[in-house]
Amino acid sequence: MSFQKTITEDRRLSLLLVLEQTPGFSANAFLLRDAIDSIYGHSASVDVVRTDLSWLAEQALVTTRTTGDVAMATLTTRGIDVVCGRAVVPGVKKPMPSA
To answer: Which pTM value belongs to this model?
Structure first.
């Protein structure tokens, strides 16, 4: 597996993890970008985050909507299953077991 693929899979999991911890399971791309940087160390542009959110939406892990320049994402039940390790989606890193 390439290092870039590992980073991409981990970044996608990080986005899901942040959404799972957010009230209403929803946040905009700007907040998600800042959160994955400060919490998980992923330095990504808003464009990269939006691309990941579109990919996650194609996998039915989030729903997205855009108002003006602001992309919003909401975690789905399937996305919660991935965060909890109950479902596996190729392209998203499997979460580590809780200690």
So the answer is: 0.95
